[in-house]
Structures are given as structure tokens and as C-alpha cells.
Amino acid sequence: MEAVIFDLDGVLVDSETMWDEVRRAVAYEFHGTWRDESTRAMQGMSTPEWAAYLAHDLGVRLRPADVAQVVIERMARRYAERPPIIPGGPDVVREVAKDWPVAIASSSPPLLIKAFLDITRLPVPTAVSSEQVGAGKPAPDVYLKAAELLGVEPKNCAAVEDTTNGLRAALAAGMTVYAVPNPHFPPDPAVLQQTTVIEKITDLPAALQKG
């Protein structure tokens, strides 16, 4: 193993429920609908993908670009008011960074990734948003790009994820995957079987040392 790549939402910030609340509120406010499967469907999508989903599939009466702007602005306000940092997450990144290059590969827009890094002052020189690549998770694009920027072959990277689509993306990239199952949206058990499961993010350093 030559590098470790972290997801952001659900791994380092407890923001999956926050995204869900904001998107759901926007859907109702702008005369759209909400389906039982909407939450899981959007997990891992890039900003253009989930904005189009809200506008076209759920009937939100805004252009996709405007949907994205409204949702991201509201998320940014939430981050400013109360950053949803998972306890111990930043310390784990710092500890791991002592032994391996680290990166973030996230479906969050660059604005929110930057906000997180500004708040935590983490030593993460490489951070990629799925907005910046061809497709969101479960496509492997964001992980492949992060590995490319690190100068490391994907097969020599460890990835840390929490949801089904994120796990599938990292597996599709050919990485060794460590799963921290999201308690709000538990991953598919069949996908978890292909990973190393750890109970909480603070268990990661020991798991990585075991290899």
C-alpha cells in the first residue's frame, strides 16, 4: 500500500443526513416530490447528477444549475453554523498522513471540501470532487483521479468509504477498501463482504497497519 484515500461525507463529516434534509426541503419547497429510494439514489452522485435528478426525476421546478446553487448555499450555511465533523476523524487523517500520502475523493462540491479542510487544517494536498471528473460514485472516476494526482497506481491505494455507492466506486477502481458502515444508511451486505469492515473511523490506523 502506497497511499490512503478518504471519502468525506459519512467518513470524516456526519453530513449524509444533512444532505438528505436540505435536498428533501428543496424538493418540497419548489413543488417536487420525494420517493422512498431518493436518498440512496443520490448518494455518491456528482453535483450535476443529483441536481438533474431533483429537477427531472423529482419534478423540482428549477433548472438543474439553480437546484445545485440553492442546495450548496444551504449546505454551506450549515457548515458555517455547525461543521458536522465526526469525532476523531481529523486526528485519524493526521495519524495516517505520517505514514502514507493521503487524499480526499468526495462527491461533495469543491466549496464544501475546501470548507472542511479550512476548518480542520488537515495535511491533505490532494482533494478531488466528483464534479471535476466524468461521473459520480458508483463510477470509479473520482478515485482514479485522486490516485493519478498522488502518482500512485489505484491497486496500491487503500480507500475509506461508508455507503454502498462509495464502496462500489472504490472497488471498481481496484483499491483495497475499508468500510466504516454508515449507521443512518447501512451499506449493502453483499458489497461489505468485499471490504475490510471497521466499526468506527478511529479503528482505521490499526487496521491499515495490519494490512
TrEMBL record:
Gene3D superfamilies in the record: HAD superfamily/HAD-like, Putative phosphatase, domain 2
The keyword Cell inner membrane is assigned to this record: no
SUPFAM superfamilies: HAD-like
CDD domains in the cross-refs: HAD_BPGM-like
GO molecular function annotations of the record: sugar-phosphatase activity
Keywords, sorted A to Z: Hydrolase
Signal recorded as keyword: no
InterPro entries assigned: HAD-like_sf (IPR036412), HAD-like_SPP (IPR051806), HAD-SF_hydro_IA (IPR006439), HAD_sf (IPR023214), PGP-like_dom2 (IPR023198)
UniProt cross-references to NCBIfam families, sorted A to Z: HAD-SF-IA-v3
Protein name: HAD family hydrolase
Organism for this UniProt entry: Amycolatopsis regifaucium
Lineage summary: Bacteria, Bacillati, Actinomycetota, Actinomycetes, Pseudonocardiales
